[in-house]
Amino acid sequence: MDLWCKNCIKELEAISEIYEEWQEETGVKLIAISIDDSRNKSKLKPFINSKGWEYDIYHDPNSDFKRALGINQIPHTFLLNGKNEIVSEHIGYTDGQEEDLYEKIKKLFN
Amino acid sequence: MFCFGLFSQSNFSFSGDLQINGQTFQEDLSIGAEKREPNINSYLNLILDYKNYLKIGTRLELYRNPIPGFENYEGEGIAYKFVQFQKWNFDITLGNFYDQFGSGVLFRSYFDQNLGIDNSVNGARLKFKPSTGIDLTAIIGKQRNYWELGEGMIRGFDAQIYVNDYFFKKSRTTINLGGSFVTKKQKDNDPFFILPENVGAWSGRMNISKGRWNFESEYAYKINDPSFTNNYIYKNGNSIIVSGSYSKKGLGLVLSGKRVDNMNFRSERGATLQQLNINFLTSLNKQQSYSLATIYPYVTQPNGEIGLQFDCFYKIPKKSKLGGKYGTELNFNFSNCFTIHKSSPIDSELINEPGTLGYESDFFKIGDEKLFQEININIKKKINKQLKLQTTYINVFNNDKILKAQKLIENGTHEKIFANIFIFESEYRLKSRYTIKSEIQHLQTKQHFGNWGMGLIEANLKNIFFSIQDLYNYGNPTSPTHYYSVTTGFIKKSHRIELRYGKVRAGLFCVGGICREVPASNGFSINITSSF
């Protein structure tokens, strides 16, 4: 994610509304990684707090992690199973896509 | 060339990403677009990883008919390749690498294909953690310059210390300290001046946070570095950036200030534009995404700038009177920037004369010219399960006389620009994964090209997207013009393809204060990205 990437913010917002339920039902954990460069670094924490998000947020200021994963477009969402293997991924976000993601999470849980 | 069958899956892993951009250019006199040969920019990144401790990577690039300013990229080849070994507390990279010290004020190498920036260092990097809480990095090499390497040799060292791992372990106050030292070396072949072959710079930074408060600061100093971009003056350089923030659930406040004095740092004295930058100077203003808000951008001034930025992020709670059922977001941003004070130095009556100390500058005084100012007010509200609305007002002042952000109209001059921008955006959800978004924007100004109006409708239908937009410069005194375009595309998992047809206005495309000129164009473009 990135502070000026609108779809990234939309996706994180949509999930934040149902995150508590997701966690109760499946124990899933969401980690958000920001690739904002140094100009937005000081804004990250205040911005995220103002939204009331409960995620773990990490900062990748020079896109090292992004490059290592071969990521091109953001938002780029990965779903990992209990063995830390990537089970599925998608780029972009349209309203309602979090429901598809949750179906996959539930399958993994069961 | 790559046969997966030969490798056992659990030890080796292979990944990469691909990007292909193509564009056609037809002549269009109404917008000043020239006919050009179709342009292709593309790259393919490949990374092979063995047991997570050995990595080999490379990037193949291909460019045909690059746009003006990037002609030197023409051709194809490999300008990025590396071998990386990570084990115990060591991480060694040989070949090309990207890295950043602190906020990048002394050293940042990165890749931004859209801007045409790739200042990767070709050499060696060693990262070492002698114990928990201390990260050390040492680098040496030359930077990429299109298909060659810059002349200057860079050497650098950085240390990052997480103090709480040693002192104040149980404290709720977190303290991080860091420092770096970077030098560049280039032979002096100048017939007039005696130029320093070795230029060194150092910086110190700190970050303290406790509960809702956070404070960080970074100071950098560079010895004399006469170069083309500072007119060959012998003045030293320095910069400081300071930022404080307060945040809690529902509210975030940030106040930052910076001052930059002669901090252009390149690995070749004659380098210009975006070539061979060793460092990256943070610009303190809002990153804009709405199209009319990007017409008058701020361009970082490494030779001297002083400014501040304030942000407030507030969410009026859900179910309150003003907030409504879902809450309402209010965001406010203010930023400005000025030149720094300059007076004649002890060895000259004039300012900025080559071969002299250049100027003297009173640290706290602001210079004569205001460069930029922006006020952003944004309100976001979810009305119901189907509808979300957003309104933005932007007041911008851009000193185009100095920033030279815009192409000029016929017989026009660079001037100080005052503009007011209104934006209204709505998003309507038809059903899951089916949404329609619309935007209306208006920019009012008495300078330069005059007023603009803009409209956009975008439909996202599961994996397909489609949009139509028009930017109409109706206030243009000589030729009111429509810049319309149609876009469509498809996304599946981590692959995306986008096709566009239409007109693009001449202007600046900026990321973080670093800009590239975009010529006016009319034609087709295709953009394919894929991660695998």
Task: Give the SSE map.
The complex is a heterodimer of chains A (110) and B (532).
Chain A: H1 6-26, E1 31-34, H2 38-51, E2 56-59, H3 64-68, E3 76-80, E4 86-91, H4 97-109
Parallel strand pairs in A: 1-2
Antiparallel strand pairs in A: 3-4
Helix pairs in contact in A: 1-4
Chain B: E1 12-25, E2 36-50, E3 54-64, E4 75-87, E5 90-97, E6 99-100, E7 108-109, E8 111-112, E9 117-118, E10 121-128, E11 134-145, E12 148-149, E13 153-162, E14 173-185, E15 198-210, E16 213-222, E17 237-248, E18 251-261, E19 304-316, E20 328-340, E21 366-382, E22 387-399, H1 400-403, E23 416-431, E24 434-445, E25 452-461, E26 464-473, E27 481-492, E28 495-504, E29 507-511, E30 514-518, E31 521-531
Antiparallel strand pairs in B: 1-2, 1-31, 2-3, 3-4, 4-5, 5-10, 6-7, 8-9, 10-11, 11-12, 11-13, 13-14, 14-15, 15-16, 16-17, 17-18, 18-19, 19-20, 20-21, 21-22, 22-23, 23-24, 24-25, 25-26, 26-27, 27-28, 28-31, 29-30
Fold and architecture overview:
Chain A has 110 residues and is α+β, with helices and mostly antiparallel strands. Chain A has one domain: Glutaredoxin, CATH 3.40.30. Chain A contains four helices and four strands, in the order αβαβαββα. In chain A, the strands form two sheets. A two-stranded parallel ribbon of chain A has the order 1-2. In chain A, strands 3-4 form a two-stranded antiparallel sheet. The longest helix of chain A has 21 residues, at 6-26. The relative contact order of chain A is 0.20. The mean pLDDT of chain A is 87. Chain B contains one helix and 31 strands. In chain B, the strands form four sheets. Chain B has a 24-stranded antiparallel barrel. Chain B is globular. The chains are: A alpha+beta (110), B mainly beta (532). At the A-B interface, helix 2, helix 3, strand 4 and helix 4 of A face strand 1, strand 6, strand 17, strand 18 and strand 19 of B.
